[in-house]
Amino acid sequence: MTRLFGTEKTRMTSYNPKSDGLVERFNRTLVAMVGSLVDPNDRNWDDQLAYAGMAYRSTPQASTGESPNMMMFGEENPMPIDIATSGIINKTSDDIESDYVQTFRHNLKEAYEPARIVLKASAGSGKVHI
């Protein structure tokens, strides 16, 4: 699989947070976000996890200048207010699919080019900003 996708397999030591810094940084960010949404006396933190994830995925990252949603799906995550005001409810599924495919291709091109430039600059400095 690694040859097929042109990737390198890496190995990490179990229970050693230094071996996977990016994931550990994300976990620290996620814990802080959930902590800000939950009352300290409330033990139902898992109820807020989906909202924290949605907020994280819709926030532009310093390393790419784009949100994870834009980089993965080619569009921003629609928020409830966007759906209520955009008129998407009145469209047929064929209209939505056709619009989606065209918009997806266009947005991916728009998102990836600036992200490549920012990532090259980040790689040159030796630092990864998340």
What does this structure look like?
The protein has helices spanning 2-5, 21-37, 49-57, 68-73, 80-86, 93-125. The protein is mainly α. The protein contains six helices and no strands. Helix 2 packs across helix 3 (49-57).
List the helices and strands and how they pair.
Blueprint: H1 2-5, H2 21-37, H3 49-57, H4 68-73, H5 80-86, H6 93-125
Task: Give me the secondary-structure category.
Answer: mainly alpha
As a whole number of angstroms, the C-alpha radius of gyration is: 19 Å
Report strand %.
Answer: under 5%
* Main sheet characteristics: none
Count of distinct strands: 0
Shape verdict: globular
Counting DSSP H or I runs of 4 or more residues, the number of helices is 6
Mean pLDDT over the full residue set: 76
Distance between the termini: 28 Å
Low-confidence parts, pLDDT < 50 over ≥5 residues?
A: none
Element-by-element helix/strand order: HHHHHH
